Amino acid sequence: MPAVAGPRVHRVSVITIAFLAAFVLGVLTLIAADVFYRRPGVMLDAVLTALRSPEIRYAIRLSLITSGITLFLVVCVSVPIGYALSRYRFPGSVVLDAIVDLPIVLPPVVVGVSLLVFFRTAVGQGIESVPWLRFVYEPKGIVLCQFVMSASYGIRASKAAFDGVDRRLEALALTLGCTHGQAFRWVALPMARGGLAAGAVMAWARAVGIFGPLMVFTGAVRMKTEVMPTTVYLELSIGQVEPALAVSMLMLAIAMVALVLIHALGQAHRWWGT
Predict the structure, then answer these.
(1) How many domains is the chain partitioned into structurally?
(2) Signed CA dihedral, 64, 67, 69, 75: sign only
(3) Structural element, H or E, at residue 31
(4) Are the C-beta atoms of 177 and 230 separated by less than 8 Å?
(5) How far is Cα 243 from Cα 57, in angstroms, rounded to an integer?
(6) Any idea what the CATH number is for the domain that residue 176 is in?
(7) What is d(CA 62, CA 207) in angstroms, rounded to the nearest whole number?
(8) Which residue range(s) make up the domain with 253?
C-alpha cells in the first residue's frame, strides 16, 4: 500500500487521535475505579471471599455451562446461515438480512418480554407442558435467552468470513470434481476459519454478559437461575458492593480475554489471506 503524501502530524491526525485518547482514557478510568475501589489487599480479600460463596460459585458455574451450550448451538446455526447469506441472492434477501440483525438492535428486555409472551401462546404452552422442555423460569431458559441474543453476532461474523473467501476457488474445486458439499468443507470452511472463530468468541462473550432478558424470562432465583450478571444485581440489591464488584471484575476479565482472542484471530485471519 503506497504511503500517504504529506506530513504525518496535521490537524486531522491531532483531532482524531485526541478523540481516541479521550475515549481510551475514559474506559481505563472506569476500570481503575473498579480495581482501586478499596486498597489492593482489601479488594483481593473481598474477591476471594466472594468466590468462596456457594451462591456465587453456583452462578459462575451456571454461566459457564449455559454459555458453553449456547456457543455450540450458535456455531451449529451461524455457519450454514452465514454461508447462505454470503453466497446466495434471492428475493427478500435484504429483509432477511435485517431480520437476522434485529436482536442486535432490539432492547434486551424486549427479547425477554417477547419470549415470555410466546410461551403464553398455545404453541408455547404446548412446549411448556412437556416436563423436559420447560423454559420459563428454568435454567434451560437461560440458554434460550443467550442464544437469541448472541446468534446474530455469530451469523454476521460468519457471513463476513465467507464474504472474504474468493468464490473462484470454490468454482475451481467444482471443476476439479468436487461436489458443492466438498467445496464447502475443503475450501470455504478452512479459509474462513479465522473469522468464524472470532465470531464464535464474540457470540460467547455476548452470551455470558446478557442480563435484561434473563430477569424477565427466567428470573434471578438463588441456586437455580442465577448467573453472573444477575448475581451482580442481587448483591447490589442488598447493599453488598464488594461481592458485586468481585463478580463484575471477573466478567471484565472474561470480556478482556475474549476481545484479545477476537483481535488475535482477526490478525491471523489476515495473515492466512482468508
Answers:
(1) 1
(2) negative
(3) helix 11-35
(4) no
(5) 11
(6) 1.10.3720.10
(7) 12
(8) 40-271
Give CA 62 to chain center in angstroms: 16
Q: Is residue 15 part of a domain?
A: no
Is there a domain that residue 78 lies in? yes
CA angle 102, 30, 41 (to 5 degrees): 130
For residue 88, report the phi and psi dihedrals to the nearest 5 degrees.
-115, 140
Residue 23: inside a domain, yes or no? no
* Single-letter amino acid code for the residue at 143: V
By the 10 Å C-beta count (0-12 exposed, 13-18 middle, 19+ buried), 45 is classed as middle
Q: Which three cell numbers stand for residue 197?
A: 472463530
- Which secondary structure element, helix H or strand E, spans residue 271, and what is its range? helix 241-271
C-beta atoms surrounding 12 within 10 Å: 8
> What is the spatial distance between Cα 243 and Cα 43, in angstroms, rounded to a whole number?
10
**pLDDT one digit per residue (tens) for the chain, 274 residues:** 455 555 677 788 888 889 999 998 998 888 787 777 766 666 677 777 777 888 888 999 999 999 999 999 999 999 999 999 988 887 877 888 889 989 988 888 999 999 999 999 999 899 988 888 889 999 999 999 999 999 999 999 999 999 988 888 888 888 888 888 888 888 888 888 888 988 898 899 899 989 989 999 998 888 899 999 999 998 888 888 878 888 888 888 888 888 888 777 666 555 444 4
CA–CA gap between residue 158 and residue 143 (Å, rounded):
21
Task: Determine, yes or no, domain membership for 25.
Answer: no
pLDDT at 272 (0 to 100): 43
Q: In the structure grid, which three cell numbers stand for residue 146, read together?
A: 443467550
pTM of the model as a whole: 0.84
Closest CA to 199 of 229, 253, 163: 163
